[in-house]
Amino acid sequence: MSKYFSIIKDVSSSIVTVWGGTHPTTASQECLQCADVDYIILGEGERPLEELIEGLNSGKDLSGVKSLGYINSEGKPVYNNQRLWIEDLDSHVLPDRQKVSIDKYSKFYNKKTFNMITSRGCPFECTFCTAPAFYQKRYKGRSPETVVGEMELLVKDYGAELIVVDDENLTNDMERIEDIMDIMIDRDLKVKWDAEVGFQLHG
Fold first, then answer.
1. Are 90 and 142 a contacting pair, CB within 8 Å?
2. pTM
3. What one-character-per-residue DSSP string does 151-198 give?
4. DSSP 8-state symbol, 91
5. Model confidence over 176-186: pLDDT tens digits?
6. pLDDT band at 202 (very low <50, low <70, confident <90, very high)
7. What is the rounded CA–CA span in Å between residue 30 and residue 127?
8. Beta strand ranges found along 45-129 (DSSP E)
């Protein structure tokens, strides 16, 4: 992955490079050792990235920006492991799928397939999983109404035949899952869906 940052810096050394996601969150020191990486973002990236951009544009001190890692002027790594979270996932924007050629990415399992996320995080601390480091054992779910609303959008606007749910722990809140399925039944939403939690459900 680090080679991409080198390619970017070859284009112009003034380009600011930011690395976010699971890898820099769980292997922060390793990622900051890459000379072509200016900043890493720990955990959820939307809010800290916005604060980083605003800080760079205004020239303000970045030492107080949460969820941020970088090498300071003394050549020492700085990690702010206090996190900036999106507390209400219902208020968060949906992916703008119209900005990409969706047909290039949506044909899997011989069906028109789309991915979506209904919750973030997991309250448990399994040693084989990156979720405890990424989400710090936090869990939050979108409301059943917004989840089914996005499913309906995928079916009606994009012709989805299969929806793959990529939650870390979809079944953490079984009452919420039951409410989602009740709404799907009430709205007569006919679409197959798989959940990446060790089981498959087909409706």
1. yes
2. 0.84
3. HHHHHHHH--SEEEE--S-GGGSHHHHHHHHHHHHHTT---EEEEBTT
4. G
5. 999 999 999 99
6. very low
7. 20
8. 68-71, 77-79, 107-108, 111-116, 119-121
Q: Return the half-sphere exposure (C-beta side, CA atoms, 13 A cut-off) of residue 66.
A: 10
For the stretch 89-134, pLDDT in tens is 999 888 888 888 888 777 777 889 999 999 999 999 888 889 999 9
Structure tokens given for 171: 């079944």
Domains in the chain and their CATH numbers? 2-79 (no CATH), 89-202 (3.30.750)
Question: How open is the CA angle 38-29-5, to the nearest 5 degrees?
Answer: 35
Cα–Cα distances (Å) from 18 to 48, 90, 125, 175, in that order, read 11, 26, 28, 38
For 138, the token pair is: 């936090």
Instruction: Look at residues 130, 127, 203, 133 and name the one whose alpha carbon lies nearest to residue 165.
Output: 203
d(CA 47, CA 51): 6
Position with higher pLDDT, 104 vs 27: 27
DSSP one-letter code for 27: S
